[in-house]
Structure formats: C-alpha cells, structure tokens
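Work Package 3 (structural annotation) set out to generate three-dimensional models for the target panel prioritized at the project kickoff. During this period the team completed the workflow that converts sequence records into discrete structure tokens, so that structures can be stored uniformly alongside our sequence database. As a representative example, we reproduce one entry of 211 residues exactly as it appears in the project archive.
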Amino acid sequence: MFNTVVLVFELIGTMAFAVSGAVTAMKKEMDIFGVVILGLCTAVGGGAIRDITLGCTPPAMFTNPVYAVLAIVVSVIAFIPAVQSGISHSGKVVDALMLTADSIGLGIFTVVGIQTAMEALAEPSFFLLIFVGVITGVGGGIIRDVLAGNTPYVFVKHIYALASLGGAVVCSLLWSVTGAAPAMLIGAIVIIALRFCAARFRWSLPRAKIK
C-alpha cells in the first residue's frame, strides 16, 4: 500500500515538474525538442542527482523509464498548438499554473527524496536526509533554469529552497513519530503551503545590492 502511495506521489510530481519545464521552454520559444528536453530534465533531474548522491546507480529514471516517458508525453501534450494557444492568451493563468506545478513538484519530490534515503541507507543522518530531500526538490528546477538561460528560480523567487528545507525538516522529524506516509504527506503540504503563502504575501529573503 505504502509503495503505491509513493508511486502516485512520484507520478504526480513528475507531471507537475514536466509542465513547469515545458512552459518555461515555450516561453523561450524553443522547438519541440527543447520543450521535451526541458520538461524531461525538470521532471527527473532532481531524482537523478539524488540517486547519484546516495550511490543508487544507475539512477531510477534509467531502470524504471515510466517517469521519463510520462515527462515526455506531458511535454508533447503541452506543445500541441491548441494547448500553446490557450497558454499564450492566458498570462495570469500561466503564472498560476507555473506556481501550482512548481509547488506541487517541489513538495512531492522533497519528501520522496527523504523516503528514498531512508530505504537506501540503514541509518541516514538527519543532515543527509535534509540535504537529499532539498536537492531532490530543487535539482530539476535548477537544471531547467540553467538550460533556459535564466538565473535559477531557487535563488531569486520568493521562498523556494527555504520552503523545501522547512518541509524536509518536518518530514524527517515526524518520520519516527507518525510513520512514513503521514510524515511525507504533512511535509509536502507544508512545502506547498509555504510556496503559495510566499507568492501571495511576497515573502522573500534579503537580497544583495552591490552595484
């Protein structure tokens, strides 16, 4: 049952991040290959970094290609002219879509990263759990932004990595108290809630102002 829940989490996160990557590529007026690559890298990039960090090679995206295939399919659907047309004429809708997709993907992949570390290692340290959770959550987005020629979202937009960090801490602390599934659900909700609140209330970290 638990493995099924994790799989559903991962599939939802994969679709959410694929949408995020595909929309970013279309904003940059990339061709279908670029759209698919950005959708794919955003969806599976964080997981690949996680698996390499944990020594789980080859990464899951290669041993179980369902995630990569799903990301490619979602990206191709986003590229369909009718879908593109709807996106291009709905600026606020696109912004809301990007926020929602990015927040869901961030929340899900952060807690799945922690779950993977728990399974891969006998006694993972608290620091390792947090690090792996955060890098799984933000890794794909960083790859997306670098390939798109943007300053990574994680460094400039509201509360992003900090939301992942907060949810990772909550999930890790609750793991031995509530069990895996409730800890993952609560951790993901915390991250998504923080992202939406940060966007709504314009929460940001202090920025450097050297000129």
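The chain has ten helices and no strands.
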